[in-house]
Amino acid sequence: xxxxxxxxxxxxxxQHARRNFWxxxxxxxxxxxxxxxxxxxxxxxxxLDTMGGAAWLRxxxxxxxxGAYSLxxxxxxxxxxxxxxxxxxxxxxxxxxxACFAILSLLxxxxxxxASTWMPIIFFAAxxxxxxxxGMTQLGFGTLQGKLVRATRRGRLMLLGNVGxxxxxxxxxxxxxPSWLRSGGGDFHWIFACSAFFFLVxxxxxxxxxxxxxxxQQQPQEGVVHFAESWKILRRDIPFQRVAWVAFFFGTSFVLxxxxxxxxxxxxxxxxxxxxSWIIIQNAGTAVLSMVAGLLADWRGNRLVLxxxxxxxxxxxxxxxxxxxxxxxxxSHYWGVFVLIGLTPVTLRTLQNYTLELAPVNNYPRYxxxxxxxxxxxxxxxxxxxxxxxxxxxxEVFFGISALLFAGWLQTLRLSEPRQKASAEMITGRIxxxx
Length: 435
Fold this sequence. Notes:
A two-stranded antiparallel ribbon has the order 1-2. Residues 1-7 and 421-435 have low confidence and may be disordered. The chain has helices at residues 11-15, 17-36, 43-50, 55-58, 60-82, 86-111, 118-148, 154-180, 188-206, 224-236, 238-251, 259-268, 272-300, 302-314, 316-324, 327-333, 335-341, 343-358, 364-376, 382-392, 394-412, 424-429; strands at residues 181-182, 185-186. Helix 5 (60-82) runs antiparallel to helix 19, helix 14 packs antiparallel against helix 21 (394-412) and helix 15 (316-324) runs antiparallel to helix 21 (394-412). It has one domain: MFS general substrate transporter like domains (Growth Hormone, Chain: A, Up-down Bundle). It is globular, with a radius of gyration of 21 Å. It is mainly α. The termini are close together. Helices cover 76% and strands 1% of the residues.
């Protein structure tokens, strides 16, 4: 098989490598700052609870969010691959993210968060639309990262985006959220407006990327062809098939996202004002973990980092239950749950970086979107998981998800290391899915 290059080796890319590295880092920082004001495992479940949501209704949050996040790149990756300059697709997607939260801000300003039958419907419609755009943003960012940044610098780019983004986001949350999140209520329209602003800033920064035009373009493909191409990759590319199983089991971690704050509230009666410290701690945890994971990934490869991160995620559900069953100690240390939740975005980014090292250069969007689909598949059960919590309680469901995450960790032991030159597995197991 003909060896795939690490990235397009063009003079234009090499000439502007430093500028593009820092521009992509700033794009991540701005997005992460906007994201802290819509944290999907703290802020958004509380917004839904304010509208009278039960656990089964909270279960729709990960289904709509991560489902739309993964399905949109899978359906639109060929359209995206057609674009001569991918940065404009990235900019359009980020502007869409900003528009969705601007609409939510206006909705909350008008309705005031009053419980009514139509509020959750409109909320979920805007929320799902946001994640359609967020999924395309992730596809665009991943494709541009693969095109413009060398594999041995992508860990540092993750470090820059997560650490720098966490620092800016934490300052913003510490300054602004205390006046918007109070005991007994919250000014969510200002929180949503703040997210919309930072997403718009990120789109403006992305427009400054220096990207050479792609000469080769694929014809758009629709419907069943999308499934056929993804199935071909999963069936024929053995190294990718293995990481797809890791992605599938990792995806089960998202179904518990809305329920960690609910568990803390049910056992300890936390107030809105307590959410601020959880948000800050979670983002600080992500920053520290990104620092370690990014440097380790550049030094030893993404396979080792995936093994360590998945092992940490296995401990998250039982750790939350253990803290919830110790009244005084658990209440004062429940913040530790949100440190472990910080493993999730780092794991997702590491999965994407590992996938970029496996994928042929001219097929980054399809590989990334197929991997995202594997992550999303178990998330479709999130409403059933919420219903199970309503019926049986937290313990059985949390331990079940922990067992599935452990199965995902076992799958990491089967992964190959793409950076091992002329690896026997990569030579014998890899089939060019383009042929």
